[in-house]
Amino acid sequence: MRHIDNKKVKTKKEHKCVGCNHKFPLGTEMEVNKYVMDDEIKNDYWCKTCQKYADKYMRGEFEFLPGELKEGEGREEIRKETKGE
Length: 85
Ligand SMILES: [Zn+2]
Known about the structure:
CATH topology: first zn-finger domain of poly(adp-ribose) polymerase-1
Shape: globular
CATH architecture: 2-Layer Sandwich
Bound molecules: zinc ion
């Protein structure tokens, strides 16, 4: 996997967060992680809660199953902080 870019966007359509698998409507501020895997450019969308969660608990480890971050320990606390999903 080769990382290309990370940027904050306001979504122009509905996107699923890779961390919690929750669908977020257009107009949501999300972070896009762009990378190449198997010669394909991929865009992963991250909601605010999952961004914080990953920063705090995953230390750059991005091996998880889609939706797995929803179940993570300590998430409830972060969700309250960000008022996210
Ligand atoms: Zn999320």
